[in-house]
Amino acid sequence: MGSNSLTLAPAPRSAAAEEVRAEVREFLAAELAAGSFTTHVDTWLSGVDPAFSRKLGERGWLGMTWPRQYGGHERTAMERYAVTEELLAAGAPVAAHWIADRQSGPNLLRYGTEAQRAEILPRIAAGECYFVIGMSEPDSGSDLASIRTRATRNGDGDWVVNGAKVWTSNAHTSHYAITLVRTSPADPANRHAGLSQLLVDLSLPGITVNPIRILDGGHHFNEVVFGDVVIPGDMLLGEEGAGWHQVTAELAFERSGPERFLSTYPLIAEFARRASDPAQLAALGRISARLLALRQLSLRIAGALDRGELPDIPAALVKDVGTTFEADVIDEVRRVVDVPASLDSPDALGRALAEAQLHAPGYTLRGGTNEILRGIVARGLGLR
Amino acid sequence: MSDVDLVVETVRDILTGYEPFVLTAERPWDAGLWSALAEAGLTGVGVPEEAGGSGGELADAVAIVGALAAGAAAVPVAEQLLVAAPAVLAAGLDLPAPEEPLSIAVDGAVTAEPRDDGDGPGSWTLTGTATDVAWAGVARHLAVLASSPVGPVLALVDVAGRDTTHAANLAGEPRGSLVLQGVTSAGALLTDAQAERLRARYALARAVQLSAALQQVLAWTVQYAGERQQFGRPLGRFQAIQMELAEMAGEVTAVAALVDAAVQAVERDESPVLAAAAAKVRAGAAVEVVARLAHQVHGAIGFTQEHRLHHLTRRCWSWRDEAGTETAWARVLGAGLLADGPDALWPALTRVV
C-alpha cells in the first residue's frame, strides 16, 4: 500500500535506555526537591538555565550519541531518547542547550571540518555552548528556498554576510547560529540551488539581536540582523551550494523528537492531580492513548537513527500528529475542569492552562508548518 | 518471506474468491469463506496442535485477523482466534473443533451456579441473558463470561438450536442476545484479574481489526484520489486533498504503531489491560478522522451500497464502541494510570507499552 514509506519497524526494547531513564528520574527528583527549577510547559524553548545545562553535561546527558573524541558518550539514540523524554516530562529548563544538542551538534558531526568539530562539539557536550537555527527570514517562513540573506567572498576569502533572520529562538543567550545563506544568485529553474550554511559566531561585529516577545511576555524569539558581518572563510559548514540538502537532513532531527508531543506534558501532569470524576478520567485516558501512540512513533524514529537511517518523511508525520496533539491537550482539559486560565491564577492548573494556551500558536509552526509537513507526508503517499 | 507474510498471503488468496456483501438477517455471515478458511486450517491458528488447532504464534493469529478485517470478511475469526479460544484453553476447558465457529460474550447479566464442587473446570448452571453477542445465531459455541457467588466464571455453551434475537451493528454484523435459562454447561472459575484480561483481549482484538481496516481505507482513498479526475487532473494533485490524505495517514500510522506495541505486550505476557485499553481508545479516535475524510474524498459514490468503502467504514464506526465502548476504555485507562497516585502518571505512561 501507499503508506510504506511512512512506516518504520518497531523499536527494539532497550535495557540500557531504561537504566539511564531511572538515573535521570532520580536526578530530576533531587533537583526539584532542592528547588533548582520549577516545572513549566514548553521549556525546551523558553526555559533557559545555563547552570542546569552544565549539570546535564557533567552527567553525560548531552552529546550522548557522539564519538568520545568529541566529548560524546557513544550511547544509542534510544538512550538519548529516554533522557530527553524525562527532561521534557518534568518541564525542566533545557532550552539553553536544546538546539545545539539536538541538531547543531549532529549537523557539525556530519558536515563540519575537523577543526570545527574539535573546537565546538566538546563544549556543546559540556553544556557550555549554545546554538541558534538561522533558517527563517522575515519574508521566508517555511519557504526556505526564497531566503535572501546573502554571503559573498571578499578578497581575503572570508564571507561578508548581509540580511536578517527571524524567529531565532534564544539568539540572545547563544554562541553560534548555523545560518542558511544564499551564496550564488537565485536560479528560477532550480530554487534549491545556491544555498550554503555558515557557522556564525554571534559575538561578531555587525550582528544585532532584537527581541521579539511572545504572547505571555516571554522572550525567546529574536530578529538577528547581519550588516556587513565578516565570517572567516573556514566557517563554511559542509559544501558550498549544498545548503538545501544539508538543511533537509537536519530537519529529520528537528522534527522527530519527543519535544514534538511533550511541550504541554506539564499541563497533563497538573490535570492528573485533579482528575477524579468519570468525564475527567475518560479525558485523561483519551489524552494518554494519543500520547502513547506518539511515543511509539517517536521511538521507532530513534530506532531508525540507531540503524543509520535518516527518516525524514516519518519525522514530518510525527511532528504533524504530535504538535496537533500538544494543542488539543488544552481543549480536552478545558472541557472537563472549571478552572479559568490565567498566568496569575492561584491554582497551578489555571497557570499551566494559561502558559500552554499562550504558547500554543507556536506548536504547529516551529520546525515547518503542519501544512508543509503534510505536503511531505503526501509525497510519502506517492501523491506528488 | 516471514511466516507472518506467508499467512497473510494465504488469507488474501482465499479472500479473492469472496467479495464483501451487504449483510442481512437472512444472510448474516459468509459461510463459504468460513469453510474455506477452516479447510486451510486458518481457524485454528494460534491454538496448539494437541488442542486440535494448527499451531502458530499469536502474531500469526493477529495477522490473519488483520487481513480478514481489511477484507471486510463476515466471519467470527477475531472472536475465535484472539479471544474465545485462548480464554477457553487458559481456563482448562475442552476447546470445540476449530472448524465450528466460536464466539464470546462478556456483557449481560448471566449468573452461574456450581453443580459440583470440584476444583478447576466443572459443571455450572447458567441463568440470564447474554447481550451484545458477536455473531449471535452464527457461532456454534459461545464462551460466556458469567458471575457466580464465588467469582467470575467462563462457561462454554453449545448454542446449536438455541433462540437468539437478531440485532445488528452498523455494518449488519449480528450482535444479538441469547437467553439462557437453567442451561448446564462446562465452565471454570476465573480470578477477577483473569476476567479483566479477557475483556482487554477482546478490546485489543477489535483494535487489531480497526487498525487493519483503517490502513485499508487509507489505501483505497489514496488509490481513488490517484484515479478520479476532476477539473482536468487527479484529485490527489489538489493540495486540499493532499492535506486530508496526509491527516488520514498520520492517524493510521499512529494507530498501527500503538496496536503493534500492545500486541507485543501481550506476546511478552505482560499485563495487557492498559495497553489494550490505550490501543482501543486510540484506534477508535482515529475512526472519526479517517472515516470522515475517506468519505469526503470519495464523494457521493463512496456512500452508496455499490461502492466498497462502506464495508469498512461502517464496521469501523461500530467496532470502536464494541467490546467495551471507547469512553469506557478511556476511563479504565485514565483510572489505571493513576493507580499509584497522580504523581506517578509519567512512570505509568512509560510502562504501558
UniProtKB/TrEMBL annotation, chain A:
Domain Acyl-CoA dehydrogenase/oxidase C-terminal: residue ranges: 275-381
PROSITE patterns: ACYL_COA_DH_1 (PS00072)
Cofactor(s) it depends on: FAD
Entry superkingdom: Bacteria
A Pfam family it matches: Acyl-CoA_dh_N
Positions of the Acyl-CoA dehydrogenase/oxidase N-terminal domain: 16-128
Annotated GO MF terms: acyl-CoA dehydrogenase activity; flavin adenine dinucleotide binding
GO cellular component: plasma membrane
Similarity annotation: Belongs to the acyl-CoA dehydrogenase family.
PANTHER family: ACYL-COA DEHYDROGENASE, ACYL-COA DEHYDROGENASE FADE34
Protein's UniProt name: Acyl-CoA dehydrogenase
Species assigned in the record: Modestobacter marinus
Lineage: Bacteria, Bacillati, Actinomycetota, Actinomycetes, Geodermatophilales
From TrEMBL, chain B:
Domain Acyl-CoA dehydrogenase/oxidase C-terminal: from-to ranges: 205-326
Cofactors, names only: FAD
GO MF annotation terms: flavin adenine dinucleotide binding; medium-chain fatty acyl-CoA dehydrogenase activity
Gene3D superfamilies associated with the record: Acyl-CoA dehydrogenase/oxidase, N-terminal domain (1.10.540.10), Butyryl-CoA Dehydrogenase, subunit A, domain 3 (1.20.140.10)
Domain of life from the UniProt record: Bacteria
Enzyme Commission code: 1.3.8.7
Alphabetical list of Pfam families matching this protein: Acyl-CoA_dh_1, Acyl-CoA_dh_N
Every Acyl-CoA dehydrogenase/oxidase N-terminal domain range: 24-91
InterPro entries in alphabetical order: AcylCo_DH-like_C, AcylCo_DH/oxidase_C, AcylCoA_DH/ox_N, AcylCoA_DH/ox_N_sf, AcylCoA_DH/oxidase_NM_dom_sf
Keyword vocabulary terms for this entry: FAD, Flavoprotein, Oxidoreductase
Family: Belongs to the acyl-CoA dehydrogenase family.
Protein name per UniProt: Acyl-CoA dehydrogenase
Biological source species: Modestobacter marinus
Lineage: Bacteria, Bacillati, Actinomycetota, Actinomycetes, Geodermatophilales
